Amino acid sequence: MAPDKSTSRSGQSGLTPKQVAAQARAESEAAERRRERTIRIVGGLAVLLVVGGLLAVGFFAGQDEGSSSTATTAPTPDPNAALPTGVSSDGYGVPYGNGWGAANEASLPTLEIWEDFQCPACKQVEDASGDQIKALADEGLVKVLYRPAIFLDAGLAADNEANGNPNSSARSTSAWGCAVDAGVTGEYHAGVFDIQPADEGVGFSDQQLLDLGTTVGISAEALPTFTSCVQDGTYLSWAANSNQAFSESGAGGTPTAYLNGVELSGAELADTESLTQKIDAATAK
User: Fold this and answer.
1) Model pTM score
2) Which is the most buried residue in 98, 164, 198, 259, by most CB within 10 A?
C-alpha cells in the first residue's frame, strides 16, 4: 500500500519539503533572536558562582504577566534630592553594618557592591553570599557599601511597560530607600532579590514593593510612613543620582564589587569562604 502523501512529507500534514524547510528556517531564526535577547551580558561580565559548580552570567530573560504601577516617567538626577537615612551625596551609597561609626572603623575594610535589583546575576550573588556578607557586616568585621544602579530600566523599558511595571529598577531602589528609613536595610535588600521575577522584564509592581515592607518586618507604627514614601516615589531622584555615579565609576556592569578599592571577580564575591578570608586579610592589624 502506497504511503499517504498527506503525511509522508517530513511527517507534517499538507507541507511540501520546501515549505517544511522554510518553516524550519523561520523557527530557527526566531529562536536565535530570542537567544540573543535573553543572553545579553552586562558589560561582558561573567559571574562564576561557586554553588553547585554553576556558571552564571548576567543574562536577562523574556516576560510574564505584570501588575499596575504608577511611575511612568524615568527619574532624573537631582543634586537636591532627598536621601535615605545614612546616605550621603558623596557617592549615594547605602552603608550597612556595625563597622560604620565603630571605634575601630578606620581599621575595617570596605566592601563596595554595585548592583541593580533587576539584574539576575546580582540575585545569584545575593543568593550565594548575601547572608554571609550581611553577617560579617553585622559582626563589625567589614563595612558594606551598597551602590544601587538602575541602568536596566533603559534596556527593559518596553518589557517593563508592557507588564505594567515601568522603571522597576528605579522604583524598587526608591522603595528600598524607604525601607532604610524604617530600619530594615538588609532585610528589604534581600527581599527585593527574593521577589525578583524569573523572567526578565516583568519587573516589580508597587503593590509587591509595599507588601514586602510587611514581609520583612516593618512595624505597624512605621508602616504608614513607609507606604507614603513608596507611593510618593520619595527617593526616585536619589536612585537616579546613584545611577549617574555608577555610569561615571567605570564599573563594567553589575554586580561589580571592590574590597578596599580592589575589584573582586564574581567568583570571589560568591565564594563565602574565600570572601571571608579576603576580608580578614584586608583588616588593618
Assistant:
1) 0.77
2) 259
